């Protein structure tokens, strides 16, 4: 049996980053950027939600599919952070630090995907 999704490093890190993304969004007062704030909130949530859902799937193919979606959502967060920096809504140094953490999560998810692909079940 697989370990619980809460034990995956990507889940713990993703949960913390989702909270940080939400804090950033509350600091952006300009309502014309609500679409970006909503986008990063949903993408950051998608990382941990898809990781959790994938862990509950039975087949290797299903698990990998959800983990790939989670990985793509981590990269989506990076793109939104780039837009935040480009529009000067958030300090570029802060966005770069958060991006590196989302990329780290993507790497954790890729390692998880590779480990599942190697299994013989």
Topology:
Elements: H1 9-27, H2 34-55, H3 60-86, H4 92-118
Helix pairs in contact: 1-2, 1-4, 2-3, 3-4
CATH superfamily label: 23S rRNA-intervening sequence
| Pattern of helices and strands | HHHH
The largest pleated sheet is described as: none
Number of strands: 0
Supply the CATH class.
Mainly Alpha
CATH hierarchy: architecture: Up-down Bundle
Low-confidence stretches: none
Structural class: mainly alpha
| Strand composition percent | under 5%
Mean pLDDT: 93
**End-to-end gap:** 11 Å
Outline: elongated
* Count of all domains: 1
- What's the tally of helices? 4
Give the CATH topology: de novo design (two linked rop proteins)
Helical content (DSSP H or I, runs of 4+): over 70%
Radius of gyration: 15 Å
Brief characterization of the structure:
The chain has four helices and no strands.
Characterise this structure.
With 121 residues, this protein is mainly α. The protein has one domain: de novo design (two linked rop proteins) (Up-down Bundle). 79% of the residues lie in helices and 0% in strands. The chain has four helices and no strands. Helix 1 packs antiparallel against helix 2 and helix 2 packs antiparallel against helix 3. It starts with 8 loop residues before the first helix and ends with a helix. The model has no long low-confidence stretch (mean pLDDT 93).
